[in-house]
């Protein structure tokens, strides 16, 4: 984010996007296609979307390649769990602090620092793979760089999530959230598809990995350019208290609103129990379905295609009613498809189930995010979104660590199946309870 500009009055997060001033946003004709891409009528959102999409494609390329390389180098699925834990564990440690900083300082500056750091980490990993350092040194370095990447993401994440509502009008926020989620999932398809080419072109897997990591590093240039080109400005207002008091205020705000408290728990459960199938896809590709690196990339891509379809569905619905009930129904279906994937007798059926799971997953995550963003007050947005991200992003590393540990004495397929069934059980429990989530 750029340096704040001087203005007569402080500009808060509720300041209308530049294109919204004077009703200059182009009129959008009625129709499903127009509703789906409504947020693209805002120049800043459009610019950030394409920059983030390019960067996210590189991230998925590296993540898919790194998971496969770690499994090949160590021959131990537990390292997939270690990577999943170390790459997102910093979310549990630093994101709450990142949320306070997002409400106190220029968000674009925070994001730029995060992107430049991740660019440097990706190029460092590419250099180590290209130099063919000893196996365990490469594995240890990859895990360490994953941890460092998680740290900078912990500070950049709340700033990014708080920036999105500043780019569009409130009535178009659900659409913007869905389109923002689409770019991340579409990037999964693109990144995984591109990621298969280096491994097909080069017999040397370390060279293929180095190319993948290097492309990820270069992809950050796009989002850095987008952030530097935004016209919207966030000029923080003077804080009412110190960082510690603001931190407590954010926690109290979430705790005393049952809907936010429940949504935070649902976000944690969805990633803790639901996302482990993605973390351990390389193990399923190699040991269960025996389809190799190509099959691993294809499974990631198929899941991404389903997720894109799900987010397009959400975007087309607009500000749909009864979001709470829809959220819980999607969580129930997502859990069942996870359990079904572990029972798939063939890779063909596994592809179909992953596609359907991607649809349910994306609708679930979009609904939870929309509910949180619509409930939260603007002045609390950075802190509330940081608490949400601790739950949403923090569930995955803890689940990966526990799943990797349980996969040794028990079958990985059975562990993932139980996790899916537990996720569905939680959804049923909430559907039968008087939770305020169902009121939204």
Provide an overview of this structure.
The protein is built from 17 helices and no strands. With 440 residues, it is an all-alpha fold. The longest helix is centred in the middle third of the chain and has 33 residues, at 135-167.
**Low-pLDDT residue intervals, each spanning 5 or more residues:** 1-30
CATH architecture, please? Answer: Up-down Bundle
| Mean pLDDT score | 81
CATH hierarchy class name: Mainly Alpha
> What is the terminal separation in angstroms?
33 Å
Residues in β-strands, percent: under 5%
Helix tally?
Answer: 17
Major sheet details: none
Please bin the fraction of helical residues. over 70%
Order of helices and strands: HHHHHHHHHHHHHHHHH
Instruction: Find the CATH topology.
Output: Growth Hormone, Chain: A
Give the full name of the CATH homologous superfamily. Answer: MFS general substrate transporter like domains
Tell me the Rg in angstroms. Answer: 21 Å
The count of DSSP E runs of length 2 or more, i.e. the number of strands, is: 0
Question: What is the number of domains?
Answer: 1
Class by SSE composition: mainly alpha
């Amino acid at each position: 984010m750029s340096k704040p500009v001087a203005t007569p009055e402080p500009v808060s997060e509720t300041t209308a996007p530049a294109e919204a001033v004077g009703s200059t946003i182009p009129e959008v004709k009625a129709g499903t296609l127009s509703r789906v891409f409504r947020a693209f009528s805002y120049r800043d959102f459009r610019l950030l979307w394409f920059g983030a999409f390019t960067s996210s494609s590189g991230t998925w390329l590296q993540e898919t390649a790194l998971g496969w390389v770690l499994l090949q180098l160590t021959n131990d699925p537990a390292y997939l769990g270690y990577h999943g834990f170390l790459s997102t564990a910093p979310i549990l440690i630093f994101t709450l602090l990142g949320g306070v900083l997002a409400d106190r300082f220029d968000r674009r500056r925070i994001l730029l620092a995060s992107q430049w750091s991740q660019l440097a980490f990706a190029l460092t990993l590419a250099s180590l793979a290209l130099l063919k350092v000893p196996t365990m040194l490469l594995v240890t370095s990859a895990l360490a760089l994953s941890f460092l990447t998680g740290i900078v993401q912990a500070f950049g994440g709340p700033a990014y999530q708080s920036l999105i509502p500043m780019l569009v009008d409130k009535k178009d926020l659900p659409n913007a959230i869905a389109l923002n989620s689409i770019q991340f999932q579409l990037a999964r398809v693109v990144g995984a598809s591109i990621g298969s080419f280096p491994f097909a072109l080069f017999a040397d897997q370390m060279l293929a990995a180095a190319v993948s990591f290097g492309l990820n590093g270069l992809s950050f240039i796009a989002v850095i350019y987008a952030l530097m080109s935004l016209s919207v400005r966030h000029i923080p207002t003077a804080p009412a208290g110190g960082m510690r008091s603001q931190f407590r205020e954010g926690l109290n705000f979430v705790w005393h609103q049952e809907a936010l408290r429940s949504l935070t728990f649902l976000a944690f459960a969805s990633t803790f129990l639901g996302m482990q199938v993605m973390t351990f896809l390389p193990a399923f590709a190699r040991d269960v379905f025996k389809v190799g690196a190509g099959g691993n990339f294809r499974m990631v891509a198929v899941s991404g295609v389903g997720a894109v379809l799900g987010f397009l569905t959400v975007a087309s619905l607009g500000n749909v009613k009864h979001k709470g009930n829809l959220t819980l129904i999607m969580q129930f279906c997502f859990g069942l498809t996870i359990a079904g994937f572990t029972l798939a007798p063939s890779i063909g059926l596994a592809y179909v189930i992953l596609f359907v799971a991607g649809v349910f997953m994306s609708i679930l995550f979009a609904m939870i995010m929309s509910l949180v963003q619509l409930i939260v007050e603007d002045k609390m947005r950075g802190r509330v979104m940081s608490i949400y991200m601790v739950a949403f992003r923090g569930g995955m590393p803890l689940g990966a660590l526990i799943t990797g540990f349980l996969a040794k004495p028990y079958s990985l397929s059975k562990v993932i199946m139980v996790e899916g069934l537990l996720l569905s059980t939680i959804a049923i429990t909430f559907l039968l309870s008087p939770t305020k989530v169902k009121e939204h």
